[in-house]
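Sample entry (86 residues):
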Amino acid sequence: MATKQEQYQVRDVVNVERCKLPNINIEGGVARIKKVNSAGTANVTYDVSYITCPKVEKGLLPSQLTRYIMDKEAPKRVSDTEIFHL
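Predicted structure, serialized as tokens:
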């Protein structure tokens, strides 16, 4: 029985699995969905842009992606005026 794979939207942050095959070594990592390519209801691929480096990948399958979950809250942003008054 096939399991339903998660659907992602543009701007979602995901983890891309590492792909290590003979003559292929793609590191993977944290990326943002840039485009959803759908050729019908069953064939969906994603184009992503990595957050930590200037790299893009196209045509990734949903099985290669998992939703990125932050462990902690994002740090509070400090304005320039707050820095000068410390």
